[in-house]
Design brief:
The protein contains 3 helices and 9 strands, in the order H-E-H-E-E-E-H-E-E-E-E-E. The chain has 154 residues and is an alpha/beta fold. The chain has a domain of 101 residues: Sandwich (Immunoglobulin-like). The strands form 3 sheets. The chain has a 4-stranded mixed beta sheet with strand order 2-7-6-4. It is globular, with a radius of gyration of 23 Å. The two termini are 15 Å apart. InterPro entries: Cupredoxin, Phytocyanin-like, Phytocyanin_dom. GO terms for molecular function: electron transfer activity; metal ion binding. It is a single-pass type I membrane protein. Keywords: Copper, Disulfide bond, Electron transport, Glycoprotein, Membrane, Metal-binding, Signal, Transmembrane, Transmembrane helix, Transport. It is found in: Membrane.
Length: 154
């Protein structure tokens, strides 16, 4: 019995993070392009470790460079930074903290093709189940407490 419970727990520990992770298509239907406000797009979104950013664009027209805060402000990638160029670039958010991305094509970053986000540790917190007390049985004595049933007891 205990080994079965451990096995189920081990499977859930592996599967749940990938099931709960979110794929964010940067810019939604606009994709990764110039003339779009990516900071407004990111406002109100929560990015968590395990989520993925997907940069969609026409190959050859843009690229994606991961930079630091200074590179983001100055629209310059550090020497040796290798751009992503597939047109369907997927970035796994593997660590928490600030992340910065720019397009390295001339003038694109200066024209708004850049994204700064904060990645939060772990998955989005799931809402806690609200225990619902069962209706007291007609035979329950006055002042007795009805049992509480939780979903994990089944």
């Amino acid at each position: 019995m205990a080994s079965t419970q451990f096995f189920i727990f081990a499977i859930l520990a592996v599967l749940v993070p990938s099931i709960l992770a979110t794929d964010f298509v940067v810019g939604d239907d606009k994709g990764w392009t110039i003339g779009f406000d990516y900071q407004t797009w990111a406002d109100g979104k929560e990015f968590h470790v395990g989520d993925r950013l997907i940069f969609k664009y026409r190959k050859g027209n843009h690229n994606v460079l991961k930079v630091n805060g200074t590179g983001f402000q100055q629209c310059v990638a550090p020497a040796g930074t290798v751009p992503l160029t597939s047109g369907n670039d997927v970035i796994l958010l593997a660590t928490s903290g600030r992340k910065w991305y720019i397009c390295g094509f001339p003038t694109h970053c200066a024209n708004g093709q850049k994204l700064a986000i904060t990645v939060l540790d772990g998955l989005s917190p799931a809402p806690s189940p609200t225990p619902t007390p069962a209706a007291p049985s007609p035979k329950a004595a006055r002042g007795s407490v009805a049992p509480v049933h939780y979903w994990w007891n089944y």
